[in-house]
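pls design
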């Protein structure tokens, strides 16, 4: 099953080898539990381990293999980030996709060797979503052939970029490019921030950390201001865009090619989110198979809480989602790598499809992942609330994905633009022009679903029902938009009046895609035992997801209430059928205890002994009487007692 999750036996067994290697190297392990450390201690500890990784990487992984590096980072550094998180996640991808060969020779090679540390500085105090209104300006000075970076007001300060505050000495900075008074929109520049020897900020640079956050606190998200700070013309990243010495602007082959680092993260983060969801579910499912509370049959002993249907309903649909997301994530990464290669040859035709797909997936997956992690926390009762479970940290890190790389409700609208265009083609009788991701929009729907009406061994009837729902909502939302425009609203006003419905269409389209990705993967599985288990999980998934959106199919009679009853019964049937495999389904992700960092979710299942040992290790328990008690509480109680006398 691990080979299914990790897209092949090769990587699944490499993960095992890497974990086994690390198990024998205590210097790579956390020196104490992360929840007991201050932010400063965590950053120091993470830097220590990062240095070890850099020194010994070649002994443990193939450094050219991104997935091996990712696994090494998960095991050793964990999810709370590290001082070079953005270096790998965005700085290198930005240089790879946007720097010219010459620039790559100069900077990318140094970045890969970790001679320099970089980040991606785009968001500002005043603007994150609306990139066209960024306020940092890069004005071209023809005389000196330099760009002058400047922060004209407080809202123009870069704000949020990961590892900008303290760790990075370079950044790919996004700024509005002004040449001879003309604004050429957001462009990307390679900018030195700190002296390479002393790490002191360079003259003209104001820089620092923005303070603690909900989670992800090992990362020093930072602020950055420029005071007429000069960089050479050749620091504009020039793989696709160019500015000649005389200030002539050479347009890229696609207007949004500079957004590639964002598309990179959106493509990869689907897998990252699936893994975080699977972390929380591993913890909660293992714990639920140890925790005994209450009886189902009063003549019998107390049961494991995993026997309760409500507990199964709380956890198993999310287990199915984690599998669905990891399968969909593998597809987005493949598409991203393909688009990257095609762009190299000047073919930008798939950029819009990739952007639409990743915008939708990013939004739906992060939202459902956060929901699933929070349910996993609640499934652990009181102990879920303790940081010993580590689920609150997993939630905090994962939920950041709803905001970063484009706020979810904004990114759903990006997909909606694509869907509306497609709906326009359908309306104009040009369905043959629809791309493969939206071809279903042009197909004719049956009048009713055949679920429970015809013997259906496969998933075709379910897929058709999801298609019907997504198609109906897309065409309806587009019609609403066109209707407002026909009545005289500008497109922008009409768009704003239709966005709730448009975003619903985007979600339904994306949920259809996730179901289809799951079906595609299950159909490929050759081993009959694995196929059976995955088919059960997929059955659970389609019934659960369909119930969740059933209103759309009920309102036009595509599904009847008796079909809905059938879907419900199927859901309950598969909850029970999956129960014996539940622990194996989470164990198949093969997370080591080191990687999970959860006292509650350890493989040995010794929950109570482990919790007690953890509590005893709490720094507060080093002394029996805390200084705060001596200083305040004792005098308080003493004076209360004295006043009573
Ligand atoms: C897209 C915007 C919202 C709007 O941009 P514009 O205003 O410029 O565009 P328009 O809305 O007018 O649209 C015009 C047109 O362009 C199309 N478009 C837009 N973007 C793209 C694109 N990227 N590609 C192609 N086309 C694009 C759009 O569709 C329109 O087309 P039509 O006219 O034809 O309809 C934009 O402003 C925007 O993107 N805003 C969001 C800003 C944002 O995302 N900021 C991100 C900042 S960086 C950040 O947040 C970093 C966080 C990093 C955290 C690190 C975590 C990493 C986790 C990694 C996990 C790895 C796991 C690996 C696992 C493994 O390996 O196994
Ligand atoms: C953990 C974390 C890490 C980050 N790392 C980086 C980084 O490394 N580099 C970097 O540059 N940035 C980074 N960011 C910033 C991040 O990319 C932005 O915060 C994000 O893109 C959202 O933009 P915003 O903050 O401007 O939100 P806003 O756009 O202000 O959103 C506020 C609300 O307004 C709504 N809204 C905004 N515009 C519209 C619209 N057009 N239509 C409808 N509703 C709208 C949103 O839906 C939301 O409800 C990070 C953020 C976080 C939380």
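designed seq:
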């Amino acid at each position: 099953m691990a080979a299914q999750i990790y897209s092949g036996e090769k990587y699944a067994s490499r993960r095992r080898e890497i974990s086994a290697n690390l198990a024998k190297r205590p210097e790579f392990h956390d020196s104490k539990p992360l929840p007991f450390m201050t932010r400063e201690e965590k950053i120091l500890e993470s830097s220590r381990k990062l240095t070890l990784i850099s020194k010994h990487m070649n002994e443990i992984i193939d450094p050219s293999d991104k997935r091996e590096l990712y696994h090494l980072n998960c095991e050793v550094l964990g999810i709370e980030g590290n001082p070079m998180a953005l270096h790998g996640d965005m700085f290198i991808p930005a240089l790879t996709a946007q720097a010219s060969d010459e620039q790559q020779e100069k900077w990318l090679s140094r970045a890969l060797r970790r001679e320099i540390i970089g980040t991606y500085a785009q968001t500002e105090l005043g603007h994150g979503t609306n990139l066209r209104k960024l306020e940092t300006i890069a004005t071209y000075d023809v005389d000196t052939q330099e760009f002058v970076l400047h922060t004209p007001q407080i809202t123009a300060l870069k704000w949020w970029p990961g590892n900008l505050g303290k760790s990075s000495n370079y950044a790919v900075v996004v700024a509005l490019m002004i040449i001879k008074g003309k604004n050429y929109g957001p462009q990307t520049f390679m900018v030195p921030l700190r002296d390479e020897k002393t790490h002191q900020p360079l003259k003209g640079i104001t820089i620092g950390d923005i303070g603690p956050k909900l989670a992800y606190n090992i990362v020093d998200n930072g602020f950055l201001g420029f005071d007429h700070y000069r960089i050479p013309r050749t620091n504009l990243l020039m793989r696709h865009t160019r500015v000649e010495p005389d200030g002539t602007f050479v347009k890229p082959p696609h207007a949004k090619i500079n957004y590639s680092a964002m598309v990179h993260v959106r493509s990869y983060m689907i897998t990252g989110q699936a893994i975080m969801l699977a972390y929380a579910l591993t913890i909660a499912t293992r714990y639920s198979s140890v925790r005994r509370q209450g009886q189902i049959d009063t003549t019998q002993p107390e049961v494991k809480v995993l026997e309760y249907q409500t507990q199964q309903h709380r956890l198993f649909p999310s287990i199915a989602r984690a599998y669905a997301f990891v399968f969909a994530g593998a597809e987005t990464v493949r598409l991203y790598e393909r688009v990257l290669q095609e762009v190299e040859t000047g073919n930008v035709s798939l950029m819009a499809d990739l952007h639409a797909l990743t915008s939708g997936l990013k939004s739906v997956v992060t939202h459902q992942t956060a929901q699933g992690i929070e349910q996993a926390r609640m499934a652990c009762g009181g102990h879920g609330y303790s940081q010993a479970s580590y689920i609150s940290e997993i939630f905090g890190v994962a939920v950041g994905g709803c905001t970063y790389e484009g706020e979810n409700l904004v990114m759903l609208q990006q997909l909606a633009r694509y869907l509306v265009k497609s709906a326009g083609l359908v309306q104009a009788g040009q369905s043959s022009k629809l791309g493969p991701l939206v071809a279903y929009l042009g197909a004719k729907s049956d009048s009713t679903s055949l679920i429970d009406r015809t013997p259906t061994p496969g998933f075709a009837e379910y897929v058709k029902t999801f298609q019907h729902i997504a198609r109906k909502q897309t065409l309806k939302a587009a019609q609403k938009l066109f209707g407002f425009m026909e009545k005289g609203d500008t497109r922008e006003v009409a768009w704003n009046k239709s966005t709730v419905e448009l975003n619903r269409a985007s979600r339904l389209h994306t949920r259809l895609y996730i179901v289809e990705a799951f079906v595609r993967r299950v159909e490929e599985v050759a081993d009959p035992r694995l196929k059976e288990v995955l088919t059960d999980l997929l059955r659970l998934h389609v019934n659960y997801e369909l119930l969740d959106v059933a209103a759309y199919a009920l309102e036009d009679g595509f599904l009847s209430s008796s079909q809905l009853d059938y879907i419900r019964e199927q859901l309950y049937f598969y909850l029970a059928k999956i129960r014996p495999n539940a622990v194996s389904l989470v164990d198949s992700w093969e997370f080591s205890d080191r990687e999970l960092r959860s006292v509650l979710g350890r493989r040995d299942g010794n929950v109570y002994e482990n919790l007690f040992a953890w509590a005893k290790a709490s720094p507060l328990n080093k002394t029996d009487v805390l200084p705060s008690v001596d200083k305040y509480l004792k005098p308080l109680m003493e004076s209360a007692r004295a006043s009573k006398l």
